[in-house]
Amino acid sequence: MNRLNTKTLPRAWVAAGICMLMATAAWAQDNAKAALQGQAAAGEKIARAGSAGGAAACASCHGANGEGQAGFPALAGQHAGYLVRQLNQLASGARQNPVMAPMAKALSEQERADVAAYYASLKLSIKPVRGPLPGKKDDDGAWLVERGRWADGIPACAQCHGPGGVGVGQDFPAIGHLTADYMQAQVDAWNKGQRDAGPLGLMGAVAKKLTAEDIQAVATYYQRLHGGAAPQAAPAKP
Q1: Contacts of 85 (CB under 8 A, 6+ apart)
Q2: Is 23 left (phi over 0), alpha (psi -120 to 50) or beta?
Q3: pLDDT at position 138, please?
Q4: For residues 221 and 179, what is the distance between their CA atoms, to the nearest angstrom?
Q5: Is the pTM of this model over 0.85?
Q6: CB-based burial of residue 137 (10 Å sphere; 0-12 exposed, 13-18 middle, 19+ buried)?
Q7: How many angstroms separate the CA atoms of 199 and 207, rounded?
Q8: What is the pLDDT of residues 152-202, one digit of tens each?
Q9: SS3 call for 112
């Protein structure tokens, strides 16, 4: 059998293969764990009424059905393994957020798994649609999402986060419904070392190469792709 020579393959194929292999392996292991630990019914109670330990109702910030609202991302349909990991990192301090960290700390490990299972059981609000490959006259958002900007070492968003940004497994969450201001806040967190850089440090490295204009263009393109209204403008970097 001939050995695969990655030098002969387009870089986009190589990046996509790495993302998919990592996501598939992680999903198989962590989804099974989340399914064993998380109880959606118990998680729904916490989401709607808060926890005995003092965590506020998730719905008060993330919407009655996990649809999200200004400043707070949608949770409905996100992979349980991804949500559990974020809650655990917030509780441990590995991910820093002044609003969410106290909430995560007030939840037990079981309660975090329950909440994750509940939101994972809800329907994702976006569809796995892919736009046509952009040409020379298309905007930067289309290029970044569908093709990437390889001159700067930025792979296409779709290669890891799936068509339409619907997410792939626990390592690559749904991003196609996020507003520009929330995306920008996460990029800033990665650049400040306030969030885990992700598998192989991929998002940590990509975040350093994205401008505020890039973030706005990506969010606008996703909104157009899903037929939604234009997102809020991303705040300028200081």
Answers
A1: 30, 170
A2: alpha
A3: 82
A4: 11
A5: no
A6: exposed
A7: 13
A8: 999 999 999 999 999 999 999 999 999 999 999 999 999 999 999 988 899
A9: helix
